[in-house]
């Protein structure tokens, strides 16, 4: 007891952040959020069945598009729904007061909560990737076996089998999957920022969804704002606000191009990752600034 | 609290101003590297509908393209070529970097639709059936040419365009040109450079140039001395009156 009392209180403690993050993750897992994986599996199997009449290349293309699109939707939904209810739930259950009554700074509390959601997103995405790889591998093996039956051994068979392997899982998909996680992380941080001043979870979710949609047309608004056109002053002000306040989420849509066979240059990947990290940092700091002045 | 919210809004505005030039540059780079020349504009909105357009804008471009592709496959079973073309146009606009979509769209037009047009029993006049057939070849050519503009490194599209010129249009000069470009693409199959030389040999006015290329292939050794090469080389030697001492000894074809 004496030694504990003698330990000086740290301004920032990674151990405290870790404790909050792991508790947040545990709470979210207990909410059975991973049930959505069943839906993901059904989508994967469904895509395989729909494309059964198509060529192998078409089947793989559709399967990859559907799976990666579903990964993108599910991680985003998980990010928004899980984050939107974090603060209201803690306030409603009075857990927030118990934690903040201890020597836990609000910064650490908020960071721990966010890192818990990030961990949840990473686990969910890893599970989806694992399921995707299994389905793709199964289809690849079926295609290889059918090709082996169709061609006699020789260079033609080798070329056909090589084409099949090339059309399935490729290492180039990894950066695309990493960006899916980053996009979900940006959306989660933005949702956390909204929830620091929102009056209810419903409000946070609705605003977050609207920002998500506007975030995908933001480049169009930006282009129109900066172009010379006869738009009125009010329109220009509105477009400027959309361009400056809403994140450009199209920057994180790399996976569509990767599935289509385009290789993402490392420079573009690094810049996108840097932009995502910057969004997360700024939104978190702004969220903390609001949360620090919130009357609890 | 209200004052803090105002400060937060100001901070987000400043952040927006700082990131603006960076995001614009990144978008330009991304468009140049990945999404070449494709734009999601109002003409596309008319093709894919409001929901599809919104979905495409919301980061689900590939999913919308797949849904349209599956629709095109269903339409194919009903042999509605016009409806297929509408779907293909939308799909290739949404996913211009996907070689498979350009390739298959072209094949459906120059092979399936063109044959269906030629064998159309409702049209008794052969001239009109031939015209319709040729129009579908042109549509196939258009997909391959536009596909190559978006994917200049695709050997598959080069080969298929070359074969379209060779087998359908019988335009050996264009076929030779496309095959030659295809042979220069990284990872192009080995046979493409041979096809370029063979087609050049059939292109009127280029006999001397073609002879040089065929001879160069012949001199590479047994591996290149395939029956088509030997036959074309023999024909050109006769046509160009190559002196007997310079002629390559062509063995008679095996029975």
* Sheet of most strands of chain A: none
| Count of individual domains of chain B | 2
Q: What number is the mean pLDDT of chain B?
A: 87
β-sheet strand percentage of chain B: under 5%
Main beta-sheet annotation of chain B = none
Q: Strand tally of chain B, please?
A: 0
Helix and strand element order of chain B: HHHHHHHHHHH
Q: Kindly, what is the distance between the CA atoms of the first and last residues of chain B, rounded to a whole number of angstroms?
A: 95 Å
- Structural class by sheet pairing and helices of chain B: mainly alpha
Query: Over the alpha carbons, how many angstroms does the gyration radius of chain A reach?
Result: 23 Å
- Could you estimate the helical fraction of the residues of chain B in percent? over 70%
SSE order and pairing:
The complex is a heterodimer of chains A (296) and B (255).
Chain A: H1 2-6, H2 14-30, H3 36-50, H4 56-84, H5 86-92, H6 95-101, H7 106-150, H8 155-167, H9 173-195, H10 201-226, H11 233-245, H12 255-259, H13 266-292
Chain B: H1 2-33, H2 42-57, H3 61-77, H4 81-94, H5 99-118, H6 126-150, H7 155-169, H8 172-183, H9 191-201, H10 207-218, H11 227-239
Describe this structure in words.
The complex is a heterodimer of chains A (296) and B (255). With 296 residues, chain A is mostly helical. Chain A has one domain. Helix content of chain A is 78%, strand content 0%. The longest helix of chain A has 45 residues, at 106-150. The radius of gyration of chain A is 23 Å and the shape is globular. Chain A starts with a helix and ends with a helix. Chain B is mainly alpha-helical. Chain B has two domains: 38-151, no CATH class; 171-255. In chain B, 73% of the residues lie in helices and 0% in strands. Chain B contains eleven helices and no strands. Chain B has helices at residues 2-33, 42-57, 61-77, 81-94, 99-118, 126-150, 155-169, 172-183, 191-201, 207-218, 227-239. The longest helix of chain B is centred in the N-terminal third of the chain and has 32 residues, at 2-33. Chain B starts with a helix and ends in a 16-residue tail after the last helix. The mean pLDDT of chain B is 87. The chains are: A mainly alpha (296), B mainly alpha (255). At the A-B interface, α4, α10, α11, α12 and α13 of A face α1, α3 and α5 of B.
